[in-house]
Amino acid sequence: MYDVIVIGSGPAGYVAAIRASQLGLKTACIEKSFDADGNSQLGGTCLNVGCIPSKALLDSSHRYSDAINHLSNHGIEVSKPKLDIAKMMERKNKIVTQLTTGVSGLFKANKVTQILGHAKIIDSNHVEVISKDGSETLETKNIVIATGSSPINIPVAEINNKDIVDSTGALEFDSVPKKLGIIGAGVIGLELGSVWSRLGSEVTVLEAMDEFLPMADKRIAKDVLKEFNTQGLNINLGCKVTSAISNKKDITVTYENNGNTTELKVDKLIVAVGRSPNTENLLDKNCGLSIDEKGFIPVNDFCETNVQNIWAVGDVVRGPMLAHKASEEGIMVVERIAGKHAEMEYDLVPSVIYTHPEVAWVGQTEEDLSAAGIEFKTGSFPFAANGRALASGESAGFIKVIADKKTDTILGVHAFGPSAADIVQQGVVAMEFGASAEDLGLTIFSHPTVSEALHEAALAVNGQAIHIGNRKK
Ligand code: FAD
Ligand code: AMP
């Protein structure tokens, strides 16, 4: 009898399993994916086909485009760099293997029992594991569902894994497509579009909605759209793809915009229209667990499902599909199983788009606050006025701090610029401790760092920025 069975070994599941074991709970983690040798393929989407391989390619492609476009600005002339895609992919795959085998090592070190097979929940105390060797039923006091999500397939552009691919296929092209189409200007479409655009593809992004990055700060979204179009991403809003037909030569993508129908010819097409939860064949029909019409498992703020002792975390439940959100939910749940007081600060889950420059934010936008009738003040600071950003030739973008008008408590930090993810992370720490804009203003920042832009934006909230005429709303 286990104390906890975790289903799925992505960032939600493997982190939950390790913490459960640290807390003295007898824990098993069931994973259905396996590698070429028949061993468990741990790490889920994030380590295998998501966060890590995409960042490996973003980094490689950034170095390539930097060498071509920016090194000469530093007085360094290089002959045109030569691309070796096979080596770039090999490097990416090596990083993935290092991390996924690392999870296996962590399981051993933490005494988490690793089980290979497809898990099916019979009831709140029984999980059936189906593998090539047959099936067995395990007994447990608690079940944590961490089965994650998979790319959404749309009938108008069916994935054929040759020239019409999902995000997984887009991490494995063996050459740079001359013309690349992308359906969806979400985070994944923008990151993968950046990779291939930097490596030389002519990229066209088709987005059905009229608004770009609706979840981000409005001015940041506007500036980002302009910057990405300048970089050659060619983002077309209000363009709904109605068909994609692949023949031997190319793919004809048809889309509608303002009542007009347009055709686009591309060599490869990435479908990046979102992800759906993995709940297929997960539940025995008598287990009583609810699933909503989109396949998500409904949970409360503590990730409790409608069945006692069954919990669900990560991409398979509501909220942003982000690895760090998934992991923190996993930790919260097993701590609660162990009888500890634990909760998630959902308002403080940061978001990042790992393009160049990066886009990142945490907390509320001005639009959220206006809609909620909360009075606020803002301070902004452009990277063009930050010495370090200028020294590295990375001066596009700005940072904005939003604070409560009366209490000065920081309610949001939004950035677009160099190291935006790491700078916003400092805002997350400040907000976790309930800091005011004044607190951040009183904090000493190393000089010269791009983080000083956060310091100045916090000072600007109360009209005290030093290196710029104070921008107040
Ligand atoms: P998953 O990582 O999807 O893991 C679920 C696991 O459960 C899988 O291994 C699956 O095989 C297994 N499983 C499913 N059903 C069963 C079953 N019945 N029995 C046994 N095992 C089962 N997020 C970020 O925060 N930062 C990023 O930079 C980022 N980049 C991304 C880039 C791309 C291209 C993609 C696709 C995603 C990216 N994400 C990023 C999102 C991130 O990968 C997910 O939010 C995260 O992996 C969710 O974790 P999870 O554990 O809930 O699910
Ligand atoms: P995300 O869910 O953030 O990954 O973003 C996916 C994006 O794809 C959303 O902004 C959708 O509006 C967009 N999308 C979905 N279907 C289509 C379609 N047929 N044509 C163009 N864009 C689409």
Keywords, separated by commas or semicolons:
alpha/beta, Enolase-like, domain 1, 473 residues, binds adenosine monophosphate, 5-stranded parallel beta sheet, binds flavin-adenine dinucleotide, FAD/NAD(P)-binding domain, 13 helices, 22 strands, globular, 3 domains, 31% helix
Fold and architecture overview:
The protein has 473 residues and is of the alpha/beta class. It has 3 domains: 2-151 and 276-347, FAD/NAD(P)-binding domain; 164-273, FAD/NAD(P)-binding domain; 357-461, Enolase-like, domain 1 (2-Layer Sandwich), CATH 3.30.390.30. Helix content is 31%, strand content 25%. The protein has helices at 13-22, 44-49, 51-69, 85-109, 167-170, 187-198, 218-231, 323-337, 366-372, 387-391, 420-432, 437-442, 452-461; strands at 2-7, 27-31, 113-116, 118-123, 126-131, 134-145, 149-151, 164-165, 179-183, 202-206, 235-236, 240-246, 251-257, 260-266, 268-271, 275-277, 310-312, 351-353, 358-363, 376-382, 398-404, 410-417. Strands 1, 2, 3, 4, 5, 6 and 17 form a 7-stranded mixed sheet that branches. It has a 5-stranded parallel sheet with strand order 8-15-9-10-11. The longest helix has 25 residues, at 85-109. 45% of the residues are buried. The model has no long low-confidence stretch (mean pLDDT 96). Bound molecules: flavin-adenine dinucleotide (FAD) and adenosine monophosphate. The site of flavin-adenine dinucleotide has 35 residues, from strand 2, helix 2, helix 3, strand 4 and helix 8. The site of flavin-adenine dinucleotide (FAD) has 35 residues, from strand 2, helix 2, helix 3, strand 4 and helix 8.
